[in-house]
Write a structure and sequence with these properties.
NOL11 protein; globular; mainly beta; single chain; WD40_repeat_dom_sf; NOL11_N; NOL11; RNA binding
C-alpha cells in the first residue's frame, strides 16, 4: 500500500527518547510510556499531544513496565526495585531500593498466580547469569544463579507459570533450548541456589542449524523460534520456525527474505513480527501433539505436508476485524452457553411423542 494512514499516532518532543515499550493499562484503558528513563507519561486514546498529558518524574531509571490483565501495571526499575503503578503514583519521587547494583537486567516477565502478581527477571554480571522471582503482595524476593554452560551463554528467555511453578526456557548460543523449573513456594531463609537446567531441544535438523534470536512458547509441546537457518556451505536465511519439543522435530518453517528485527511476539494464537518495514500478523493453531503429526504422516493427509500447522497467509483487513470482534465477544459466548442450557432444559421437559420432526430439528439447532 503506497498511501498508508495511521489510525493513531503519538510522538514525543525532539530529543526525547522512549526508553521502554509502551503498555496498555487494561483496567483504565490508558497507555503508559517512559521516556528518558525516568519520565512517566499516561494518556488515553483521544489525547493527541503528549506534552499535555499526565507526566511524573521518577527518582530512578525504569527498565520495563508490565501490564497484567487483573493485577494492574507493575514497574521494574533498572536497580531491581519493583512497584505497582498505583503505589508509584502516590509518591513519584519515593526512593527506590537498589537490589542489583552491579548486575544488568537482560529480560523480565510478569504473571498472575491466582490473585498474586509475580515478577521474574534475569540479570548478568561478568558472564554469570542470575534469576530473581518476586511476589508483589507478599514482598518476597528470591535470587538464583543459573548453572553455567561451557562455551555458551543465554541469548533469549521466555517463561510461563503453572501450579506454583515457573518454567523458564532459555535459548543459548550453542543453538539449544534449555528448561529450568523454579518453584514459587520457597523458604525465605535459604541462600542463593544454583538452578540446574535440562536440554529441551537442539535447533538442528538434517545438517541445517538454526541460529535463533528470539522465541515464544505456543503450548506444552511446541515453541516458535525466529532466527537464521543455515545448511553447511549454504547462505543463511532468516525464517520463522515451529518445533515440536516432545518429539524433537521441526514442524514447519517460513522463509523471511526481507529480514526481521529479530523480535517475535505471540498473543491469542497469532504471531507478531516485523518483516521488512511491515508488522506481520500470522494465525496458527496447535493440534494435539502426536508422533504421526510430528513426522507429517497424519492419516487424513495424502502428502506429508506439515505446513497446515500455520496459515502462512498474513491476515487481511477483513480477517483482522473478524478476529478482533470474536475476541471482544467472549462474554457473549458464555451468555449463549447459558441460553443453550436453559433451552436444553425446556426441551427435556417436553414429552418426546409430542414433538414434530421439525420442532425437534429446531430444538437441536
Amino acid at each position: 500500500v503506497s498511501d498508508q494512514k495511521p489510525l493513531g499516532c503519538w510522538s514525543v518532543k525532539h530529543g526525547q527518547i522512549i526508553t521502554c515499550p509502551v503498555v496498555c493499562n487494561f483496567e483504565t484503558h490508558e497507555y503508559i510510556a517512559v521516556h528518558d528513563d525516568k519520565v512517566l507519561r499516561i494518556w488515553k486514546n483521544k489525547d493527541i499531544n503528549l506534552d499535555k498529558v499526565f507526566k511524573a518524574t521518577l527518582s530512578a531509571d525504569v527498565y520495563r513496565i508490565h501490564s497484567l490483565p487483573n493485577g494492574g501495571p507493575v514497574v521494574l526499575f533498572k536497580g531491581g526495585g519493583v512497584r505497582t503503578l498505583d503505589v508509584l503514583l502516590e509518591a513519584p519521587q519515593q526512593e527506590i531500593e537498589n537490589i542489583i547494583s552491579d548486575e544488568v537486567i537482560k529480560w523480565s516477565a510478569a504473571f498472575m498466580e491466582g490473585q498474586q502478581p509475580v515478577l521474574i527477571f534475569a540479570t548478568e554480571k561478568d558472564g554469570d547469569f542470575f534469576v530473581y522471582t518476586q511476589k508483589l503482595k507478599m514482598n518476597s524476593l528470591h535470587k538464583y544463579k543459573l548453572e553455567q554452560q561451557e562455551l555458551a551463554k543465554p541469548l533469549s528467555f521466555t517463561a510461563y507459570i503453572k501450579n506454583q511453578i515457573i518454567t523458564l526456557l532459555c535459548l543459548y548460543s550453542n543453538d539449544s533450548v534449555y528448561k529450568i523449573l523454579i518453584p514459587l513456594q520457597q523458604n525465605t531463609e535459604e541462600e542463593e541456589q544454583i538452578l540446574s537446567k535440562s536440554l529441551l531441544l537442539n535447533l538442528s535438523v538434517s545438517g541445517s542449524v538454526l541460529k535463533g534470536t528470539s522465541f515464544v512458547v505456543l503450548d506444552k509441546d511446541h515453541i516458535a523460534v525466529l532466527g537464521s537457518l543455515a545448511a553447511s556451505g549454504e547462505e543463511s536465511k532468516e525464517c520463522l520456525t515451529i518445533w515440536n519439543t516432545k518429539f524433537q522435530t521441526l514442524q514447519t518453517s517460513k522463509e523471511l527474505p526481507l529480514g526481521t528485527s529479530g523480535q517475535l511476539w505471540c498473543y491469542e494464537e497469532k504471531f507478531f513480527f516485523t518483516h521488512g518495514k511491515v508488522l506481520t500478523v500470522i494465525m496458527y493453531k496447535c493440534e494435539t501433539s502426536s508422533l504421526a503429526a510430528a513426522v507429517g504422516k497424519l492419516k487424513d493427509s495424502q502428502t506429508p505436508d506439515v505446513s497446515s500447522f500455520v496459515n502462512w497467509n498474513t491476515l487481511g483487513d477483513e480477517e483482522l476485524v473478524v478476529s478482533f470482534q470474536s475476541q471482544q465477544s467472549v462474554p457473549l459466548k458464555s451468555e449463549s452457553k447459558m441460553t443453550l442450557r436453559s433451552k436444553r432444559n425446556t426441551v427435556a421437559k417436553v414429552q418426546p411423542d409430542t414433538l414434530s420432526v421439525g420442532q425437534l430439528l429446531l430444538n437441536l439447532k
